[in-house]
Amino acid sequence: MDYKASENIQDLQYFGEFGGVNPSISDSSTYTFLSAKTMFDTFEGNTEGCYLYSRHSSPSNLYLGEALAQLEGTESANVYASGMGAISAVIMQLCNANEHIVCSRTIYGGTYAFLKNFLKKFNISTSFVDITNLETVEMSITSNTKMIYCEAVSNPLLEVADITSLSKLAKKYGIPLVVDNTFSPLNINAAKLGADIVVHSLTKFINGSSDCVAGAVCASTEFCLSLKDVNDGAGMLLGSTLDSLRAASILKNMRTLHIRIKKHSENAHYLASAFKNDGLKVVYPGLDNHPGHKIMKNQMNPEYGFGGLMTLDVGSLENANALMELMQKEKLGYLAVSLGFYKTLFSAPGTSTSSEIPMEEQEELGLSHGLIRFSIGLDNDIHKTYLTMRSCMEKLNILPKTILLA
Ligand SMILES: *Cc1c(COP(=O)(O)O)cnc(C)c1O
Fold it and tell me: Is 104 in the pocket of ligand 1 (CB under 6 A)?
């Protein structure tokens, strides 16, 4: 893997109008024209570098889009007001009524609800499959299928998609592979591995400060422009436009993404290894007992590690709730959904971010009641964090007996 995403992001230089080291923020929804002809041409999409109206595009949004295109190594990228704004625009752009989608069965709850419930309005159906089983994926493709959709590292079960193989399969059937790379920016370059369209919730690691929601679509210039088309672009017409002020603040945060991702990964790996040694049921793609470990190793950028997410199964929802409340009291982090914050965030996905998935289906997926999802923070002394977490578990009798004897 020799694509240097973070160097390319660092090298993108934009200056403010007075020579500021950050670009000026475009504080306008509309733009003036000296000639009526240029306005018409801009409306038709024929005028490079001219702005018309900020739902279509704005300088700040374009700057952020360029940085995101560098992150994934795609020709272009559009930004949106949320991850769901990006995801729903992509799906609506690619699918007409009565068509079909093949999708991983372990995905973000909002995406699941959009595909399963919302798209019923258009009679668009989705086959939810085990994305790690390529035969099942292939068998689910019909002549009506318009895309394969998955997450590079899935929410919340941390399944790893074999993007190279899925991309070959998608090409064989002439359909795009859409990958949500929210859990693994920089860790995995989904587009370089063959994904045609990469979506992100910028709300999470990429912005990293839990102060706003935003999303992105990284793809070919042709596809990005089609989303912005004034006549039939889903991005343009569904209207989930990111505000320029937010685009500017996210771009500034992106400048430190490489440092943050390395630290999130280092800390998560440390805790996952330690808890595995303690005999706890921990899931982390960096552990060699993880079913996707080999695939992750093959497709990751090693310097960024295996990511900042891990899960721990503590047996029951009662245990999970008690442990999360105690950890919050001990200042280990916050009982909160979302991820990518400097503090560790933990939640029980079955009753929160994946509650859109019916209970029976959750069980089938292996999404057990005692599962806690952790987005590990940027703690400076992770060994101390480990000892405090362990003492919380000890107090609640959650540690396996063998550890207590040791
Ligand atoms: C949070 C999340 C989303 C949705 O993003 P929003 O910014 O909340 O709309 C989509 N996919 C994944 C994997 C997520 O974690």
Answer: no
CB 227 within 8 A of CB 234: yes
The structure's pTM equals 0.95
Three-state secondary structure call for residue 65 = helix
Query: What length does the chain have?
Result: 406
Query: Of the residues 254, 271, 296, which one is the last residue of a structural domain?
Result: 254
pLDDT in tens, 306-365: 999 999 999 999 999 999 999 999 999 999 999 999 999 999 987 777 777 788 887 777
Instruction: Say yes or no: 150 and 273 in one domain.
Output: no
Give the domain-ending residue among 235, 254, 273. 254
Is the CB of residue 374 below 6 angstroms from any atom belonging to ligand 1? no
Question: How do residues 9-58 score in pLDDT, each as one tens digit?
Answer: 888 889 998 999 999 999 999 999 888 888 887 777 666 677 889 998 89
Ligand 1 and 201: CB distance under 6 A: yes
> Which of 106, 108, 154, 205 to mutate to test ligand 1, by most ligand atoms within 8 A of the CB atom?
108
| % of the chain at pLDDT higher than 90 | 82
Question: The domain spanning residue 315 has which CATH number?
Answer: 3.90.1150.10
Ligand 1 atom with minimal separation from the 85 CA:
9
Q: Which long-range contacts (CB under 8 A, 24 or more apart) does 221-229 make?
A: 221/75, 221/76, 223/76, 223/93, 223/196, 223/197, 224/65, 224/75, 224/76, 224/77, 224/78, 225/45, 225/76, 226/93, 227/78, 227/89, 227/90, 227/93, 228/45, 228/56, 228/57, 228/78, 229/45
